[in-house]
Amino acid sequence: MMTMSRAQVTTFLVQVLLPLLVVLLLGPIHCRADVSAQPTPPSGTAVPDYAKAAAQYQSTQDIVNRVWPKLSPEVRSYLDVQLRPRSQVRPMVTAPGSVGISAAAANAATQDEISGRCVLGLRRMISLANLTSPATLASADAAGKPASGLLAFNTKFWGDYGECEIYSNVSRYCLVSASLYVFSALVPVTQYLGYQPHQWGFCVPKECTEHDVSLLFTYGTFNGTSIPLKDLYRIQPNTSVSADCTLEIEYEARHIASIFICAALGLFVLLGTTIDWLDESLKAPTPEEQDGPAIAYTPPPGAPLNAPVATPTSNTSTSTGALTGSRVITESGAGRENRHANGDVLVERGTSDGDDRLLFSADDAPGDDVPLLKRQSGDLMTYTPLAAAGMVTSGGASSPLAISMVTSQQTMLSQVMDNPLARFLLCFSLLRNARRLLDTNVPKGAITCINGIRVLSITWVILGHTFLMCSNYLTNPYREMQILERFTFQTVSNAFFAVDTFFFLSGLLVMYLSLKQLDNHHGKMPWFKFYFHRVWRLTPAYMIALMILYNVLPFFGTGPTWPGTVTFADQCKKYWWTNLLYINNFYPKNFNDQCFSWAWYLANDMQFYIISPLFLILMYRSKLAGTVSMALTMIVSWVVTAALCAHYNFAMGTLAKAPPPGHNTDYTSIVYEKPYCRISPYLVGLFLGAVLRRGDEFPFVRSFKQLPRGTRLIIATAGWLFSGVLFLSTLFGLYHQAHHNEFLSKEAMILYVTFARPAWSLGLAWMVWACHSGYGNIINSLLSMSFWIPLSRLTYSVYLVHFMAILVGYGSLLKPFAYTDTFMIFFFLGYVFMSFLVAAALYLAAEAPFLELEKIFFHTHRSATPPRPATSSPTTATRVVNQ
Fold first, then answer.
1. How far apart are CA 360 and CA 358, in angstroms?
2. pLDDT band of 328, cuts 50, 70, 90
3. Is the pLDDT of residue 199 over 80?
4. Distance CA 398, CA 689 (A)
5. What pLDDT shows up at residue 213?
6. 101-102 and 93-94 as β-strands: parallel, antiparallel, unpaired?
7. For residue 381, what are the β-bridge partners?
8. What span, in angstroms and rounded, lies between the C-alpha atoms of 210 and 174?
9. What is the pLDDT of residues 590-600, one digit of tens each?
10. Nearest-angstrom CA–CA distance, 326 and 361
């Protein structure tokens, strides 16, 4: 490529590229400028002469022809191959399938009409007086041009979005998409892809609408070009063309309401955190702050407050010494009371971490933990807050006024903490919700391996969606087609098994925890709470995430593809209520019309939960009845799935090839999101939950436990091998088809779709049972590590927000990118980090607070204020009473 001087580049932009850009856009447009059809201008304003504007535009080709001879021979030589054909644009009416547009399309051009405002804007842009203006130059330079990589199927010519937006007061960026078919003879990859969207970016006058730009492109682009279209493209009369233009979003009532709700949640978090901090600041200090155990006493009448205090030396001793007129009694165990009618004071002592708590006298502030004394040198105790405030004399004596002030503060705090509004706000406390999130204590009997499974599964979901969405932003899709043929890529293309893992875990926990509830209450279950808890557990965070998607997310991104990325706003406006009712997997019928498309999983999970009591009750009353009911339900699911696959004849096997004629392509709407096709993993989870909860009541479990240890180890090893076979066969079962770009036969497709998910869930069932029963070894150790616990609490929120993070990340790209493995790794890790970060905010502001509010509704504990971090060893209480 020859080097052009700066003067030559300027000449090229001003004298050639600008007129050619207009010719490219407008071509043979038949503009019927009808003044009567235009809005009436304000009085005193001259009516624009649209006919004259159109006539001036027709002279654009003459401008190009006049400019061309003035270029230097070197510039003409350089530009001739690429640009000369564009200067010879003329209307063309040809037969379908050849270069140009068909007769039908040309006739349609005479019927459609470009708006007069757009015509005037174009005239202003190309007028000779504006050819050298920065806005006009930027509009020409920002337009997309065919780039290298056509044989790798680079069909994304976005131009420069940022350059166009600099002059957003007079211009706007539009991305035009047209589905074109590329001949496989010249571009081999198209034998896989067929019709694909080609994208061109244009910087057009602000007056032009998306409809105007679509017409300009449709009737002007294919009539003259530097690319040999007859060799590359088969242009059909019905070629679909659409344009997405940048548009300033106007604030509506829904946007304002969403901002108000987010601000209210933030205010609740701030107030709740403040109240919690004040409460914590007046509680007993930590052992590091105490520098030793605290002892409180009630002084006898006339005794000074700073009288020496003897430290008790045993858990059962009574010390008098310096405690004239008092006795110290030590009590151990959890059965002691914190308040006594006689006004005695309790000190909690002897915890594993030395966390001593002093309870205020029952006569002053019952139930509140406050520090009274702190060890000083010489085993003398003084009241620390008073000393810090300068209310203690040099000898350690406190004035009655100081004691009165502290008592008044404690009484006031106690009244505030018992206020319903304070209890409500404390549910939003960032301190306690973060403490709950980071708590790694595990209750006895917990199935610890599911924490690691949860986190790995949600990460797998993010991985699959990262690769699923990247196809729309690649400049080398041919490279992506090669990636699809890799053996290792099967772990990405089959990431949908991660969703089946969540179905399995959901069924497992429902059965395991519900049977425990039934056992503890003699077969009785509060069914209202059973359903209310599930709805209350999922819906608030779900609806807040949907609100953010619909009303807030459109303001978060910008770029060439962003207007097309946020088209879900129209779907949400129509169908948001289906998400609230958890029926979005049935209505709308088309999966692509859903508002919160990835929430189909939540609809299925809720529907499974609704029918789960049928299996719970049967399993509680009869193991045989429960097992048979789940088996029959699974068989029905298999039959329905197989029948649908046979009827619709889905194409299954490769992602890099267009399905052959006669195959249905709407697999997602018909099978993938329907509960009667996805319930198998949930049923396997229900059964395993019953086995883990009541294992000895199942004959095969009793027989296994009675076997010698060596035999059990052999069976466990065989179980792990069988589980591995199930995992590998489902995960890599389609590799042959993917590598050779083939589709499964109809029979093989039916078998795979019907039984792949149950096989996957059976492998999971063995893994969870083996880990929980002591046969997991290193796998159980890895999946049960404590650092998984906080992350596993975020998995629900991560599922809600991760796709939004991907939409913002990809949708805000200013340029398409070329696929490389390294680049995709960084994309994936970035989306994982951002998903967990945003999920933590959603958990702390919505998910955790609403769970605490549920406890207030049902009075599951005295107040919303949780106790201080629990310890494993019993506590010791020291009581000081008056003699």
1. 6
2. very low
3. yes
4. 61
5. 86
6. parallel
7. 375
8. 8
9. 998 999 999 99
10. 15
Eight-state DSSP code of residue 664: B
pTM value? 0.74
The pLDDT-based confidence of 812 (bands split at 50, 70, 90) is: very high
Distance (Å, whole) CA 625 – CA 604: 24
Taking residues 3-18, report their average pLDDT: 53
Helix H or strand E segment including 177: strand 171-182
Residues 308 and 297: their CA atoms lie apart, in Å, by 11
Q: Residues 715-771: pLDDT tens digits?
A: 999 999 999 999 999 999 999 888 888 888 899 999 999 999 999 999 999 999 999
Taking CA atoms, 313 is separated from 287, 325, 375, 489, in Å, by: 18, 18, 15, 68
Cβ-Cβ contacts under 8 Å for 351 (sequence gap 6 or more): 871, 873, 875
- Reported as type and span, the H/E element at residue 242 is strand 241-245
**Alpha carbon distance 474, 469 (integer Å):** 10
Coil, strand or helix: which one is 201?
Answer: strand
Q: How far is CA 787 from CA 441, 783, 793, in A?
A: 11, 10, 11
Separation between Cα atoms, residue 210 and residue 175, nearest integer Å: 9
CA distance 512 to 605: 16
Of the segments 12-16, 345-349, 388-392, 775-779, which one has the largest average pLDDT value?
775-779
600-621 helix and 527-547 helix, angle to the nearest 10 degrees: 170
pLDDT at 581 over 50: yes
Residues 6+ apart with CB under 8 A from 492: 463, 464, 467
Q: How many CB atoms within 10 Å of residue 446? A: 14
More confident residue, 414 or 130: 414
| Residue 613 tokens, joined | 């009591």
- CA–CA separation, 360 vs 364, rounded Å? 7
CB 737 within 8 A of CB 654: yes
The one-letter amino acid code at 46 reads A
More confident residue, 351 or 410: 410
Q: State the pLDDT at residue 449.
A: 95
Go through 469-495 and write b for each residue having 16 or more CB atoms within 10 A of its CB, e for each that does not.
bbebbbbbbbbbbebbeeeebbebbbb
In SS3 terms, 751-806 reads as: HHHHHHHHHHHHHHHHHHHHHHCCCCHHHHHHHCCCCHHHHHHCHHHHHHHHHHHH
Buried b or exposed e, range 537-572, using 16+ CB within 10 angstroms: bbbbbbbbbbbbbbbbbbeebbbbbbbbbbebeebb
Q: Which two tokens stand for residue 126?
A: 């190309």
In the predicted model, what is the mean pLDDT of residues 557-568? 87
Range scoring the smallest mean pLDDT among 276-285, 431-440, 707-716:
276-285
In the chain, what is the straight-line distance between the N-terminal and C-terminal CA atoms, in Å? 104
Do the Cβ atoms of 545 and 807 come closer than 8 Å?
Answer: no
The SS3 of residue 877 is strand
Which residues, other chains included, contact 256 with Cβ-Cβ below 8 Å and sequence gap of 6+?
A: none
Half-sphere CA count of 355, side-chain side, radius 13 A: 14
CA 286, 287, 292, 294 dihedral sign is positive
Confidence class for position 406, pLDDT limits 50, 70, 90: low
CB atoms within 10 A of CB 291: 12
pLDDT over 90 (residue 490): yes
CA atoms of 24 and 28, how far apart (whole Å): 10
Mean pLDDT value across residues 59-72 = 51
Structure tokens at 849: 């607070």
Contact of 347 with 880, CB cutoff 8 Å: yes
- Provide the residue type at 840 as one letter: A
For residue 725, what pLDDT is reported? Answer: 95
CA-wise closest residue to 770 among 513, 500, 453: 453
